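Is S-adenosyl-L-homocysteine placement plausible here? Inputs below.
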Amino acid sequence: MTESKTDIRLFNLGQLQAQLGKYNWPKFRAKQIYHWLWKKHARSFGEMNNLPKDIIEGLENNFEILPIRVKDEQVSDDGTIKSAFETADKKIVEGVLIPTEKRMTACISSQIGCSLACSFCATGKLKRLRNLTASEIVDQVVEINNQATTNYKKSLTNIVLMGMGEPLLNYSEVMKGIDMITSEDGLGMSPRRITLSTAGISKMIRKMGDDMSRINLALSLHAANDEKRSKIMAINDQNNLDELAEAMIYYYSKTKQMLTFEYIIFRDFNDSLDDARDLARFCKRVPSKVNIIEYNSTDDEQFAKSPEDRVDAFVEFLTKQKIVAKVRRSRGQDIDAACGQLANKNKAELK
Ligand code: SAH
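Reply from A.M.:
I modeled the complex. C-alpha cells:
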C-alpha cells in the first residue's frame, strides 16, 4: 500500500518547522528546505544538495512537490509568449509574458477554467475544473520570469491576474500566492506592481479592503448601466453596479487606493456617447481611472471591435468629463494570447 504524501508547499515556514519537528532533524534544516522551495524553486528533493541523504529520503517518503511545468510555448509576432502550463494532475492552464519597451508583464491564471461565463470571453466557455493552489500561482510567475530573462534578458516588472479564472472566487489561495510573490522569503516583488482584475464580487472587494490589500484592483466593468451589463456578464445579477460602487467606496476608504475600470469597447453595444455618459457618471462615484480595451475576437460572431473614430470620440468625451481614460492596445492576438482569448486551444485536455 502506498501512503499518501503531503504537498510540502502547503506550509509557511512556521508550519513547516512544526511538520518536520517529528523527524528529529536539526532545526535549521527546515529553513534550508524552505529556501530551496521558495527561493531556488526546487522541483525535486534530490536537488537539495546541501541536505544529507537520509533527510532527502525522509522528505521523498513523506512529502511531494507538485509543480506546474511549461508544456507548450507559442511566440507572437509582437514578442508576446503564451505558455500552456501542465499541473501535476495533468490539467492545462495558460499564462502570458507581455514584453514592452518599459515593462515585462506576466499575465497569470487563478483557476483552471472559469465559472462565470461572461459572454464575450473565450475562457468563459470552459468549465471551471478547480482552483489553482498558491504554489501553482507562484510557479507561473517563476516560469514566466525565466522566459523573460532567457528571451529578453530582463526580469518581470509587473504581474496581472488577468488570465483564466476569477481570482476573487479563489481568494485565499490567490492571497497566499501574492504573499509569497511579495515576501522577502519568496520573490520579493512590490505589491504595487501586481494588479488583480475581477469581474466584480462585491463581498470579496470589501474583504480585500478589510485585509488592507496593497495590490492594485481593477474591475471589469464593460458597461455602466445594469441592463447592458447583465446582458454580457451574468455575475451582474447578484453584484449590480450600485453594490459594486458601494463595495469599491468601502475598499477605497480602507486602502486609499485608486481603482481601475476595464471597459471593453464593443461596436454598437457600449460605444455611443450615451454609454460614455453612463461611464463618466459611474466613474465619478469612486476615485478611479479607465482602461478602454479593444475587443479581441473569440470564435463568437456576436461581438465586434468598435471602429477607431467611435473609440476616439468615446475617449474624448470621457477626457472632457475629467475622467482619466487610456486605450490599451491588444497584444499577442495572432496566437490567441490576448485578454479573453485564453481557451487552451492548442491543447484539448480541458474538457
Ligand atoms: N475574471 C477576471 C480576470 C480575467 S479576464 C475578470 O473578469 O476581470 C481579464 C480581462 O480580460 C477582463 O477585463 C476581461 O473582461 C477581459 N476580456 C475578456 N474577454 C475579452 C475579449 N474577448 N476581448 C478583450 N478583453 C476581454
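Short version: The domain at 71-335 is CATH 3.20.20.70 (TIM Barrel).
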